[in-house]
Amino acid sequence: MSMPVTGRFAPTPSGRLHLGNILCCLLAYLSARSQGGRFLLRIEDVDIPRCPQRLSEACIDDLRFLGFDWDEPPLFQSRREEVYQQYFDRLSKLDLVYPCFCTRAQLHAAL
Q: Which of 75-98 are b and which e, b meaning 16 or more Cβ less than 10 Å from the residue's Cβ?
């Protein structure tokens, strides 16, 4: 018995959509729909200064204009802080959280 397919497109609305975004959305959409699956839109707007609400709205409007639809209301990552806090607290209680003192440069160099 196989799991139902769920595809998603998760843009970061720091600017208008470009052809690369649209191609990624199209591929995820067609893959999910061709397998009878669901398609979700998840807006990666956690960097509030770089991702103003107007760009999220423009992204949604552009995708609708292009004919995309999704099976649930768009999920905004910036509105899920309580969910993330619950999991952080759970991991913390299990002593599975530790601080990182690396600089951004060190993190990028590690990739």
A: ebbeeeeeeeeeeeeeeeeeeeee
Q: What tokens does 5 get?
A: 């397919």
φ, ψ dihedrals at 46, nearest 5°: -75, -20
pLDDT computed for residue 14 by the predictor: 93
Task: With beta carbons less than 8 A apart as the criterion, state whether 8 and 41 touch.
Answer: yes
Each residue's pLDDT tens digit, 38-94 = 999 999 999 988 999 999 999 999 999 999 999 999 999 999 999 999 999 999 999
Residue type, 44: E
Closest C-alpha among 48, 104, 103, 36 to residue 76: 48
Name the residue type at position 36.
G
What does pTM read for this prediction? 0.79
Q: How far apart are CA 75 and CA 105, in angstroms?
A: 31
Query: How far separated are the first and last CA of the chain, in Å rounded?
Result: 37
Q: Which of 1, 65, 69 is nearest to 29 (CA)?
A: 69
